[in-house]
Task: inverse folding
């Protein structure tokens, strides 16, 4: 399997900050519009991280105008121009899918105590 | 030059220039020494015989050792022939490596597919199966396999259950994503036949070859 690791190792980014499920993150994502490339902001709670190595992905959920929006990003995608952790969350689960059924105040994640 | 012998390592994924994920098959290719040249004069057609993967001399039998000794090479596990226009361009004992795929856009790949064992018609031939209720013939059955007293037999070639897989499969027009000359690795978009460690025959896309001529 080392050869496969070697192939994916060249693709991986190591400069990304550490973040976990429950954290609120601010992403800048490259968007291609015709010939233009611009950055789009996406801010929300990380509700899942899955996979390993070069294929790892994470899901960010936000509520936009009352409608839940979730986007899945490959962790090592070159289209992620920046990833900032805004708030660390205190959670007891690896996947926060229960947030999908909650609204308003109930759909909050407690901040992690330092 | 037309092709080389390689070994499937497995699958992975990489990001392309637009940042999109491309699924890739990783193949270890060559380097393959030329063991034998076949010419119109000596054999009736033009080809070169290439070898892949060395083995210990104690593992090879005498005919094999002798065949490689003629080319001044240690014994190899796999031998395959590749048709070429002029075998005299090649030197016996010289190595062909992955460099021949540089600048090539597409390749054709041949290999043994995974064996699936004895399978029914739904998996093997894509039949739809029967109805579960109302007197159906059962959910995975082939249904009727023929007519009545005339012709009184099952027509030859009728698709029925049987052994599936472990057959030689040719896949055409596979796109080369990357050629890693340092590690002799070829990255191909999508899947290739067989499990890990399957021996594959990789040739330059047929239609490209015709264009070159």
Result:
């Amino acid at each position: 399997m080392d050869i496969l690791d070697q192939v994916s190792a060249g693709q991986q980014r190591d400069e990304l900050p550490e973040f976990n499920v429950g954290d609120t993150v601010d992403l800048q994502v490259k968007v291609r519009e015709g010939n233009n490339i611009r950055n789009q902001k996406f801010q929300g709670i990380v509700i899942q991280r899955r996979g390993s190595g070069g294929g790892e992905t994470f899901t960010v959920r936000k509520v936009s105008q009352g409608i839940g929006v979730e986007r899945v990003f490959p962790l090592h995608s070159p289209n992620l121009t920046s990833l900032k952790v805004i708030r660390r969350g205190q959670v007891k689960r690896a996947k926060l899918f229960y947030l999908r059924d909650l609204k308003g105040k109930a759909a909050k994640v407690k901040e992690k105590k330092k | 030059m037309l092709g080389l012998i390689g070994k499937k390592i497995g699958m992975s994924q990489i990001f392309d220039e637009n940042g999109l994920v491309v699924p890739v098959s990783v193949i270890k290719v060559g380097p393959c020494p030329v063991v034998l040249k076949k010419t119109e004069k000596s054999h009736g057609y033009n080809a070169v015989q290439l070898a892949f993967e060395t083995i210990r001399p104690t593992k090879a039998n005498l005919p094999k050792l002798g065949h490689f000794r003629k080319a001044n090479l240690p014994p190899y596990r796999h031998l395959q022939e590749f048709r070429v226009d002029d075998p005299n361009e090649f030197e016996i004992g010289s190595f062909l490596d992955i460099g021949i795929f540089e600048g090539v856009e597409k390749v054709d790949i041949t290999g043994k597919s995974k064996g699936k064992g004895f399978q029914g018609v739904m998996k093997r031939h894509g039949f739809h199966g029967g109805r579960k209720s109302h007197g159906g013939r059962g959910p995975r059955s082939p249904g009727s396999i023929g007519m009545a007293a005339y012709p009184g037999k099952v027509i030859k070639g009728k698709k029925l259950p049987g052994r599936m897989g472990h057959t030689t499969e040719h896949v055409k027009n596979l796109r080369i994503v990357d050629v890693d000359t340092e590690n002799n690795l070829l990255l191909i978009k999508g899947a290739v036949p067989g499990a890990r460690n399957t021996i594959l025959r990789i040739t330059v896309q047929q239609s490209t070859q015709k264009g070159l001529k």
Remarks:
- The first strand of chain A starts at residue 24 and ends at 33.
- Chain A touches chain B at residues 1, 3-4, 6-8, 10-11, 30, 32, 54-55, 74, 76-79 (CB under 8 Å).
- The beta strands of chain A are 24-33, 36-50, 57-64, 67-74, 80-87, 89-90, 110-111.
- The CA atoms of residues 44 and 62 of chain A lie 5 Å apart.
